[in-house]
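seq:
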Amino acid sequence: MIYEKEILQPREEINKINEEIILKIRERVNVAKKIAEIKRKYNKPIVDIEREKIVLNQVKQIGLKNGLDPERIEKIFQEIINLCVEAEEKIK
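struct:
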């Protein structure tokens, strides 16, 4: 089989997975916005360092359980959290 033909299907799978990941990130951002509304209602700060630590520990454990480097998973989720915090801070 020719390389270009053989690699086409896995690349299409990657493209589909990338879209699914982005849709899940959008879903997470939308939930974060709901959380921001609740925080504002109760006059709580947007950033909750203790909660972030809990989340990062959870995702590291999930990554480890699934054979992924927990430190890299932590970095990925730190960026996702940053994206969500930015969205939360825009809630009036």
